[in-house]
Amino acid sequence: MADYSFGYGGIGSGIDISSMVSQLVAADRAPQDARLNKLESAAKFKLSGVGSVSSAFDALKTALEALKKSDAMGARSVSSVSADSTAGTDNVLGASVGKGTPAGQYQIEVLSLASAHKLMGAAVATGTLFDAGKLSLSMGGESVTIDIATGSSLADIRSAINDKAASLGVQVSLMTSDDGQHLSIASTKTGAANAISLAFVEGGGDLSALVGGMQQTNAAADARVSIDGLVTTSAGNAIADAVPGMTLTLKKTGTSTVTVASDAAASRKPVEDVVKAYNAAIKAIASATSYNKETDTPSSLTGDGQMRGAAGQLRGMMADLLGGLAAQGLDAKSIGLQTRAYPSNDGTLVLDTAKFDAAMAANPGKITAAFTGSDGFAARLAGVVNGYVGTDGSFTLRTKGINDQLKDVARQRESVNLRMEATAKRYQAQFVALDTLMAQMSTTSNYLAQQLTALSAQQRL
């Protein structure tokens, strides 16, 4: 209750004006608060029900979007073993696959590994200083010019090359041997296209001799791999998409057998996710519209027409979809997907995983086509679900409408508060006027009493 006190009570009347005003305002406010509380409670009750159903439909939408993808049921497992393996491992390569990689066995021979180019300079005595000049370094189709200042040491030359050529993928270092210091130039990138070329441009004979003394210690080379007799090359030691979706990580030369197989559990999971999400959506509607006969208590959306329509549409579409699958020879007996039977025939689905896995193993293409794609099981069911939780879906719009009702209630409360403030001021003014009048009457009464007392005393004399 708001505080309508204003600093003093009834001086002339003795009435607790603040308390009286508060009680009168509370009596005026009570029916309006009761009305607004009822509106707010009803709106929040419905909002919770619509929210729980919308959340379940959102989860179903997510599961259906995943199943719609053409590769949703193309999960694969991969294993590899090298010819020199003694424990079923692969010392030659590692293999990974994505969805849709063609299943089968691949004979792979790593003919050579990719390597990075490296140059090593002749020995230079420690403390040697070089005259000014210019060098040119190129790698991978790019080149830079390096300025060498007068009096540069071999360490200074190393730093000058690093400053200019690091962006190309070149790393220069100094090596020390019994003969002196050596300039080492290495590529950080493998592959024949990343060979390093260091050239003398101008300067003294000492700088020219330094460049001329550089010797190759490691050649730049591409990886070469034979897959079922077909040779492919790569600048790096990872071969991607020579077989669609397969990536090979090369370890050493040698032969290996890579086996790609369907992953039954992973391929089944998108269908299982849809079944679980569909069942959750059906149960969410049932919960939000249920009626407890024992306690005579309705739920938030008991008797709600929109929810009945949503449940009916979902079940109707599911019946059509299951009928369509059966027409293709993919009935409950063959793939294990059906509505729950009596006595729990609540419209939910059950999936026999053993039957489904066996059907996928026997005819993966047909089942995948039936469930995925723009015209498959998932896409058609998603069309119904999107009508409820899409941007302009009916649940989305209804949620917005209920939130607008709650905002309107809040605005009405503000209006009531303003009116009650005005009412309180009016009551205060009236009581203050009454108090003032009563104070005046009390003063007059006291004066008259004094006069009458004085008059009575004179008459007795």
Automatic annotation (TrEMBL):
One of its GO terms (biological process) is bacterial-type flagellum-dependent cell motility. It is found in: Secreted; Bacterial flagellum. Its main location: secreted. It comes from the Bacteria. GO terms for cellular component: bacterial-type flagellum filament cap; bacterial-type flagellum hook; extracellular region. Residues 13-117 form the Flagellar hook-associated protein 2 N-terminal domain. InterPro entries: Flagellin_hook_IN_motif, FliD, FliD_C, FliD_N. Residues 220-442 form the Flagellar hook-associated protein 2 C-terminal domain. The keyword Secreted applies. Keywords: Bacterial flagellum, Cell projection, Cilium, Coiled coil, Flagellum, Secreted. Belongs to the FliD family. Homopentamer. Required for morphogenesis and for the elongation of the flagellar filament by facilitating polymerization of the flagellin monomers at the tip of growing filament. Forms a capping structure, which prevents flagellin subunits (transported through the central channel of the flagellum) from leaking out without polymerization at the distal end. This is Flagellar hook-associated protein 2. The gene is fliD.
